[in-house]
Amino acid sequence: MSDEQLKSHRDAIDALDVEILQLLNKRAGHARSIGELKGGGLVYRPEREAQVLARVKQLNNGPLTDESIAKLFREIMSACLSIERPLTIAYLGPEGTFSQSAAIKHFGHAAVTLACASIDEAFRVVEARSADYVVAPVENSTEGAVGRTLDLMVSTPLKVCGEVVLRIHHHLLRREANFEGIRRVYSHAQSLSQCHEWLNKNLPVEVERISVSSNAEAARLASLDTSCAAIAGDAAAERFGMLKLAENIEDEPNNTTRFLALGYHETTASGRDKTSLVMSAQNKPGAVHQLLSPLAEHGVSMTKFESRPSRTGLWEYVFFVDIEGHAAELPVLKTLEALRERAAFVKVLGAYPVAVI
């Protein structure tokens, strides 16, 4: 390609950049006007954002991928939303955890992320209105449900308003650029389990595996001692200046964690939604079958069924259920009415858009 041809393309890009900048500020101006019309009320509408992301993906003709387009528009919406009022998102810290990555993926980089020492604390700061939303892990594709998050959702007044699906890539991190002299490996217990086979094959049996509160904490500890390594993700590696001795060491290549965003408001239907609920069966024969039959009666599909000890009595359980559709839509509404008649306890945890990116 000649210099003249290169200049032609670069001049075109410069002109497009000016146009994009003008359009972005024009969009931001409309966002600010909407905020003024709301008078300081609710600024974040997850159903509206889900509709925008679904629409731009449908309109996309490339060469950018649908996922790239959706991520770009997520950041545009995040920046425009911050003009009205920056959101504060609580998550399980410290900085560099997958929970923080999930919060940023869902709310964008313009949101303020607030690291908390535990999932319990992350819920509490939102319940006390010291933060707007909490993003918490609810299940992993290989390790199953995150019990503490499920337990907290039974009693919290917060409502689920969104979900985030995050591909989990684990790396072996160290300050030194080699494997020699590693005596300990730090990581969260689930991450150690998710990389169990790789560790067995690639590290000596005498290397101690130590479980800590988070992968980011593992990276922090390993950054202080050259005899230690950590299993953590990209964000933790960047945060603590660690080198990647090995990348993507998870045993399951499709390792994915699902997170939920919870806050004080309920969402309206977006067109592609889920409803999450928790319930308990009456103590009689066939009670669980009776709980599930209203879904078939009203043509509602169930995407998750998880049992969990109720903590109220020996051998008593509650059931966490995800169903397709919004709680305000007629089939789901009728299903919930039937469940309330048959179940000993029913709580709708929230109705929210299905993750778009």
Automatic annotation (TrEMBL):
Domain of life: Bacteria
Entry GO terms, CC: cytoplasm
Domain Chorismate mutase: 1-88
Example GO biological process: chorismate metabolic process
Pathway assignment: Amino-acid biosynthesis; L-phenylalanine biosynthesis; phenylpyruvate from prephenate: step 1/1; Metabolic intermediate biosynthesis; prephenate biosynthesis; prephenate from chorismate: step 1/1
Keyword terms, alphabetized: Amino-acid biosynthesis, Aromatic amino acid biosynthesis, Cytoplasm, Isomerase, Lyase, Multifunctional enzyme, Phenylalanine biosynthesis
Residues marked Essential for prephenate dehydratase activity (site): 257
The Prephenate dehydratase domain, residue ranges: 88-264
The UniProt record lists the keyword Nucleotide-binding: no
Keyword NADP: no
Annotated GO MF terms: chorismate mutase activity; prephenate dehydratase activity
Function, as annotated: Catalyzes the Claisen rearrangement of chorismate to prephenate and the decarboxylation/dehydration of prephenate to phenylpyruvate.
Protein name according to UniProt: Bifunctional chorismate mutase/prephenate dehydratase
Gene (UniProt): pheA
